[in-house]
Amino acid sequence: VKKKAGKYEKQAQPVKQTAVLGAGIMGGGIAYQSASKGTPILMKDIKDEAIELGLKEARKLFGKQVERKKLTNEQMAEKLTNIRPTLSYGDFGNVDLVVEAVVENPKVKDAVLTEVEGMVSENTILASNTSTISINRLAQNLKRPENFCGMHFFNPVHRMPLVEVIRGEKTSDVAVAATVAYARAMGKTPIVVNDCPGFLVNRVLFPYFGGFSFLLEQGADFQRVDKVMEKFGWPMGPAYLLDVVGMDTAVHANEVMAEGFPDRMAREGKTAIQVMYENERLGQKNAKGFYAYE
Ligand code: NAD
Questions:
Q1: Reported ipTM exceeds the 0.90 cut
Q2: Strand 2-3 to 162-167 pairing
Q3: Residue 246 beta carbon below 6 angstroms from any ligand 1 atom
Q4: Which CATH number applies to 2-194?
Q5: Active-site annotation, residues
Q6: How far is the CA of 156 from the centre of ligand 1 (A)?
Q7: CA gap 286, 294 in Å, rounded
Q8: Among candidate residues 150, 155, 158, the one with its CA nearest the CA of residue 132
Q9: Which atom of ligand 1 is least distant from the CA of 23?
Q10: Each residue's pLDDT tens digit, 202-258
């Protein structure tokens, strides 16, 4: 599934102005990372509160850089101007690349991608940050599927080096090249992978979450499992990681995986993770998941 990212870079057209759709956990993180590395980004959401949260998160992360004396207050102020929050598509006409980071729901993504395609120029690259939904599936309703690919960041965006660039059947080399170049400009390590539900990393991660869920259903204590996995050498255990990811995103992503790989991923009955979701224990985003947050 892996192709060398380097071969595409020679074909890259410049990515000078970007946009992100969705100012949530991922959209906010993508906006911060782009701004921090000097590429201006429009951050669009449908809710004022989401934009406020996205900006608050970016300010917090820049603030930490100032505390560590990596940035001065003036540099922070300047970098913050790279993020332009918006509720409209008004300025999308001269955007080179748009990252779509709205909720993990194929219908919502279809609507948003079709909408934004009508607002950008015909050379603009559209890249989806979907965790699991096939890029060929999302390309179905687009007029210019050659300009579309996946750009899958990991959470938290500012800390996780990897970005999967997903090439759909109709994705052009030019689109892959621009996306790889933008990932590198953001200080990330892109890998180009072929399309299928879950791509590469989540085909490993979601069976792991499934295994964790089984343990809980058989009576395991989540804190002990987390401690054991930390001693095993992983930076955090599965319960804490699910709190970071968000139970809603994990459940929706798992549904896509179960549809794509029914023999391996589909299960009878509710998983422990679904029960958490139904009890509105979403994780860090609403301050209560497996753990409680301030
Ligand atoms: P989130 O719930 O934190 O944020 C989603 C945001 O999208 C919300 O602010 C919502 O208001 C906004 N939104 C909804 N409809 C919109 C529209 N029509 N236009 C603009 N904004 C709209 O979700 P998230 O965790 O940031 O996930 C976003 C995407 O990133 C999903 O596809 C998810 O699978 C993927 N992803 C998530 C993680 C993770 O760990 N959470 C990791 C990698 C990828």
A1: yes
A2: unpaired
A3: yes
A4: 3.40.50.720
A5: 152
A6: 13
A7: 10
A8: 150
A9: 9
A10: 999 999 999 999 999 999 999 999 999 999 999 999 999 999 999 999 999 999 999
